[in-house]
Specification:
The chain is an alpha+beta fold. The chain has five helices and 16 strands. The longest helix is centred in the middle third of the chain and has 29 residues.
Amino acid sequence: MNSSAALRRPSPRQIFLAVLLIFPLGCNNQAPAPPEKAPPGPVTAEKAQEEALTQTIELLGTTQPLPNNAAPISANVSAQVLSILKDGEGHPIKEGQHVRQGDIMVQLDDKIIQKQKAGAQVALELAQNDVERLKTLRKDPSTAKYAPQYEVDKAELLVKQAKSNLDGIEEQLKFYTLRAPIAGRLGRIRVQPGQAISPGTVVGDVINLEEEIDALCFVPPHLARRLQLHQHAFIGAAENEGPEGEVVFISQLAEADTGQYAVKVRFPNRARFPWQREWRANAVVRVQVTTQFRPKTWVIPLTALTEDQSPPTVVVVRDLKTVKNEEGKEEKVGKA
């Protein structure tokens, strides 16, 4: 009975407990796997160079003519438009055409003032005849008593008054002929023949952009402090894109509504290259102003800047040399 009991098979529960006791011991006997080495990342070395370094700020502005190079053509009297775009000799003038100072742009109806001028001329002639009559009487002793000196003086004063009235009417007649106030290109004419206009009505304008043009910019105080007169500037994102100019005006008074300062940058308006054109007024431009210039400074390319860190950093490598690695490939190494 005892031998048969010794040969009895173990129960399933006993087998499960034996496995639980053996499994942890087997796991503790295994050595941990060594950590994997990260392969070295490729690094490109950029050589530093000694170059001229310029510091610029970008301003957003609007092109406009110089103060004395734009003028409106406006009416000073109430009248009807008689003709437009005809010079004094009746030759036609076109919008956008170059005109001279004094060229006739618009002629207003002046029939009423012309009648007043004719009446003033008659009054002047009557006064002059009266003076001649009195002087003739005074030459003859027998009739001198009929022309006392005070009558002659009075007649001469009437001549001066009549002449003054005629001169005033002739000055008024000039208001009926609207001329170009400056030389330049004629803009858009805003009236039509037969239209009645009142004093102050702008009928057109003349603008001169042939030599120079200004870029009017408004800058905040922190940028205005970095600006000075005669600083170098250019239009565009690159220096060879637009003309070169300089800062000619920095306002001492901030704008009341924005708190910014008006700055004018003046440029020559002549194309330097065949693909460039002259600038027109009221165009939005980006102006680059050079605020600092260093003739010799060590600089590195932008590609050498590690931008994935905050703040961006630069690793300086010295004693750079070429060696062969374990695989037999050449690579550059140095001291960082």
